[in-house]
Every structure is written in structure tokens, then in C-alpha cells.
Design goal:
Blueprint (H helix, E strand, L loop, with lengths): L6 H12 L4 H8 L3 H8 L7 H11 L3 H5 L5 H11 L3 H17 L2
Helix pairs in contact: 2-3
Length: 105
């Protein structure tokens, strides 16, 4: 069975870094103190549902992918990214995938 230790804190930290945000920047956007965010990332504290949803929205995270983390992490991450794309960007991504499939060896 997978080690679930610090899954939420690590997911928040990774998404924050992926979005090029400091702890101070994210804390300000969420409406919490940087110290509180530091405790969430280190899992010394758990976020309230309200704070968790604000963090997820700001970082374009899928809460179910954190809670139900599995072997399809890269696929799930791609889906989260796609949800933030506009229609033209999705068409471009689909064309790229079609080209990859067409020319793979």
C-alpha cells in the first residue's frame, strides 16, 4: 500500500512551485499567513475545507487527485492543466497528440 505521509502538503508545495509562487505570494492570495501555509505544506496542520478549496482553485489543483492519488498521476495532472485551457489551446493540444500517435514508431 502506498505511503500517504505528507501527500497533501507535498501536493500543495509542488503545485505552488509549478505556478512560480512563493509561500508569501500564495498565502496572500489564499488569505492566510505565510506561517500557516508553511504548516500546511509540512503537514503540521491540516487546512479547513474552505482554505483547501481556495488553494486548489488558485493552483489549478484537483482535490480528488490528491485524496485519491494513484498511478495515473501524470494523466490526472494533464487533465487538470487542460481544464485551465481555452478552446483554441485544447484544439492545439489535441492536434499535437494526434501527430504523436500518427508518427510513433
Amino acid at each position: 500500500m502506498e505511503n500517504r505521509e505528507k501527500v497533501l502538503g507535498n501536493a500543495i508545495r509542488e503545485a505552488r512551485l509549478y505556478n512560480n509562487l512563493s509561500q508569501e505570494d500564495l498565502a496572500e492570495l489564499v488569505g492566510i499567513t505565510p506561517t500557516h501555509l508553511k504548516h500546511l505544506e509540512s503537514e503540521h496542520r491540516k487546512p479547513s475545507i474552505e482554505v483547501l478549496f481556495r488553494i486548489a482553485k488558485i493552483l489549478h489543483m484537483s482535490i480528488d487527485n490528491i485524496v485519491f492519488k494513484n498511478e495515473n498521476d501524470e494523466f490526472n495532472h494533464a487533465l487538470v492543466l487542460l481544464k485551465s485551457c481555452n478552446e483554441n489551446e485544447i484544439i492545439l493540444v489535441a492536434d499535437i497528440i494526434k501527430s504523436i500517435i500518427k508518427y510513433r514508431t
